[in-house]
Every structure is written in structure tokens, then in C-alpha cells.
Amino acid sequence: MSKDDLVPPMELIFDGSSTQEEFIQVGEGFTNRFLIERAHLRPDERVLDVGCASGQKARVLAKYLSKEGSYEGFDIVDKGIGWCTEKYREYSNFRFQLADVYNSFYNPMGKYSPSEYKFPYADDYFDLVFLASVFTHMLPRDMDNYFHEISRVMKKGGRCVISFFLLNSESVACIDAGLNSIRVPFVYESDACRVADRNAPEKTVAHDELFVRSLYEKNGLNVAEITYGFWRGRRDLLGALQDIIIALKL
């Protein structure tokens, strides 16, 4: 099977990509630049993709991970999990699971609260955990639990790569001036975050950077580097729309 066979039809793409070409470009850019180059993912390592959607990053990792490595992905949208389960059947070290977790925008009928959901994996199992545009759709009280779970399933010395819309003096000034490149107003404020839609708050969420840093510290995750994305009006130098934090488990 070629990587192009792992590109879903547009009706199954719900990760923000507007075309199949963008699905390919974003997946390859994030995986190569941040997982492999910056977080030093090795082909023989165990990887967890939280919010795997319809396999944007799995597609790239299918050709990178060796038989000694493995990939686990879960998502709250069943159509993506169903498609990936079917398409990745020949990759015996790739597994996908549905997590029926509530989200006001993506899964309003979800059974489990994100503030209580336990990842279906053993402690100290993964070398690398990543979340691409997941916390941009979660509220602070729910992120707290997810951070605990991320740390729990990571090996000591493991890495996590997570993207955000981070609120600090620079980005808030950009938002208030209407200069952010994604044209999201983030006008409604709530504890440690701003949301774009009060009726469906998880549609788009920006989080206070100091609050985010406190979650890393609370869960024994040491921030190694932050790449601030071009959503906040910066020049696109690294192909990062969102802000990306790489951290190590102490």
C-alpha cells in the first residue's frame, strides 16, 4: 500500500485541512519537523497519537516506524477511527481506538467526561506522545486530566509534543488588534482561556500560557522548547500555525 492510499476522501477529513493536498502537507510537515527532527523520534519507539482523526500523522509514521516500533491512536470521532482501522490493516503495529468522550463541538453525545477519561494504555508505556490541535478544542478543567494521563502513560525520559493557541502579552495584543492570521476573535473569556463560540466553547480555545506551563510542572513534564506559531501574526518560518511545546518526562 502506498502513502497515497492512506489519504482519506474529503468527507472523512475533519482535522482542519481544506483539501487532500493540505492534509498531506500538514501531516508530513508536523511529523518530520517536530516529531522526528525536534523530538528525535526513532523508528523503533512506541508512539501515542491523541486525537488521531483520520490518520494525518499516522500516514507518515507508517513509512517511518520499523517493525520494532508501534503506533497507537485514538479519537472521539468514529468515522475517522473506522476508516483508519480498515486502511491500516496491513500495518500490524498500528492500532486505532474510539474514545467516546464528550466534546460540545465534535462529539456532543459523548458518553465519558474528558475530565475523568482514562487513556486505555498501561503506565510508562510510550516513548513519545503527541497531540496536534487537540487542546485547541478542550477547556482547562479537562486539560488537567489529560495532562495527568499523558504523563502516566509516558516512560521516564519520554517526550511529548503538543500544539496550542497560547495566550500571552504578544498573542493577546494580536487578537485584540484583529491581526491573528486565523481570524478567530477569541472574545469570550473563561478561567485561564478564551473561546470563540460561547455556545460551543470547544470549537476553538486559546489557553493562558502560564496556566499551561503550570500543568506541565504539576505532572512532572519539563518544557524543553516552545515554537510560537504564525497564527499570532508572526512570519511563517518553521511551518507552525499553532504554538508547539516539546517536553520531557522527568
List keywords for this structure.
alpha/beta, globular, 6 helices, 7-stranded mixed β-sheet, 250 residues
Residue share in β-strands: 15-25%
According to CATH, the fold-level topology is Rossmann fold
Give the uncertain stretches in residue-range form.
Answer: none
- Round the Cα radius of gyration to an integer and report it: 17 Å
Mean pLDDT rating: 94
> What is the H-and-E element order?
HEHEHEEHEEHEEEHEE
Largest sheet: 7 strands, mixed
Instruction: Give the N-to-C terminal Cα separation.
Output: 39 Å
Question: Helical element count?
Answer: 6
How would you describe this protein?
This protein has 250 residues and is an alpha/beta fold. The protein has one domain (20-249): Rossmann fold. The protein is 26% helix and 24% strand. It has six helices and eleven strands. The protein has helices at residues 20-38, 58-61, 78-87, 140-153, 169-176, 209-218; strands at 46-50, 70-75, 94-98, 126-131, 154-164, 166-167, 188-190, 193-195, 205-208, 221-227, 243-249. The protein has a seven-stranded mixed sheet, sandwiched between helices. Strands 6-9-8-7 form a four-stranded mixed sheet. The longest helix has 19 residues, at 20-38. The chain is globular. It starts with 19 loop residues before the first helix and ends with a strand. The mean pLDDT is 94.
SSE topology:
Blueprint: H1 20-38, E1 46-50, H2 58-61, E2 70-75, H3 78-87, E3 94-98, E4 126-131, H4 140-153, E5 154-164, E6 166-167, H5 169-176, E7 188-190, E8 193-195, E9 205-208, H6 209-218, E10 221-227, E11 243-249
Parallel strand pairs: 1-2, 1-4, 2-3, 4-5, 6-9
Antiparallel strand pairs: 5-11, 7-8, 8-9, 10-11
